[in-house]
Amino acid sequence: MTVAQFCNISEIPVNDVIVYLLKKGIAAPKNYVLSEKTVEDLASHFSVPFATVSTNELSQADLSIAASKKEGERRAPIVVIVGHIDHGKTTLLDYIRKARVAEKEKGGITQHLGAYQVLVDNDPIVFLDTPGHEAFSLIRVRGLKVADIAILVVAADDGVMPQTVESIKRIKAAGTPVIVALNKIDKATSAQVEATKRSLAQYDLLPEDWGGQVVVVPISAKLGTGVPHLLEVIHLQSQLMDLLADKNAPCKGFILESKMEKGRGDVATVICHQGILRVGDFFVCGKTQGKVTFLSNAQGQIEKEVLPSMPVLVGGFDELPGVGDLLETVSFERFKEHKNRVVEHVSSLASMHAASEGIAIIIRSDNGSSKEAIMGEIAKLSKKSFKPLHVVFAGIGMVTENDIELARDTQAIIYGFNIKVDKQAALDAKKDSIVIKLYDIIYKLLEDLEILAEQGKPIKKVSKKIGEAVVLKVFDIKGIGIVAGAQIKSGRFVKEAAKAIVYRGKYKVGEGVIKSLQRDKKTVREVQTGFECAFMLDGFSDWIVDDRVECYIEVPAE
Ligand code: GDP
Question: What is the CATH number of domain 348-454?
Answer without folding.
Answer: 3.40.50.10050
